[in-house]
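Reopening: Succinate dehydrogenase still failing for me.
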Amino acid sequence: MSWVTKTFKSTLGQKLIMALTGLFLIIFLIGHVTGNLLLFKDDGGQAFNEYADFMTTNQFVQILSITTYVSILVHIIYSILLTYLNKRARPVAYAKVDPPKESSFSSRNMGILGTIILIFLVVHLQGFWYRMHWGEIQQVTYDTGVYKNLYAVVVWAFQVEWMVALYVIAMIFLGFHLSHGFASAFQTLGLNHRKYTPAIKFIGRAFAIVVPALFASMPLYIYFFISAPEKLPF
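Support: Ran it again with your exact input. Result attached.
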C-alpha cells in the first residue's frame, strides 16, 4: 500500500479531503453568488438568461461544474464517514456537561447544519438546475440570440412564500456552517499561525455573513419588488 493510499485512508487524510473539497466549494459559492447578482439588474432578465446559457453550454464551465458536483458528493460522503468513525471510537457518550467556551454552536452541530443544507440543495437543483438542463422552459429572444427564460422560472418560484422562506432559512444555516468550516479547513491544512489565524477567522466570519446574506436577498428582492410572470414559464 502506497503512502498516498495510507494517507487518504487515515482520519487525517479524510479530514484533508474534507478541507480541500470545502475550500473548493467556497470558491464555487463566490462565483455562483457573483453571477446570480445579475438578478438585480433591471433589464427584464436578459443578462441573467445570457449568463445561465453560458454556464450550461461553455465546455470549460462544464468541467468546473462536474468538479463541483464531485466535490459536493465527496464532501458529504467523508463527512458521514468521519462522523461514523468518531462515534465508533467513542461508543459510550461522555457525561453531558456544558459545552466548552471555545466550542461554538456551529462546530457542535456541523452534521445537522450540513444535512439541512443538503435537503435545500436537492430542492434547489430540482427546481432550477434540472429544469434548465432538461426541463421544458419557454424561450425568449434578444438581439444576441434565443435563450431559455430561466429568469422567469426564478421569478415565478420566488412568488411562493414557502420557497422564499426555505431559501432564507437555508442561507442562515449555510452561514453557521461556513463560520466554522472556513477557518477549520485552513487549520486542517496546517495553515494556522498566531499572526495569520486571527485574520483567517475574521475573513471566515465575514464570508459566512456576506455570501449567505447576498443569496438570501435575491428571493426577498424578487418576492417584494418583481411581479410574477403572466403565465407559467414552463
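The radius of gyration is 20 Å. If you still see a failure, please send the error message rather than a screenshot.
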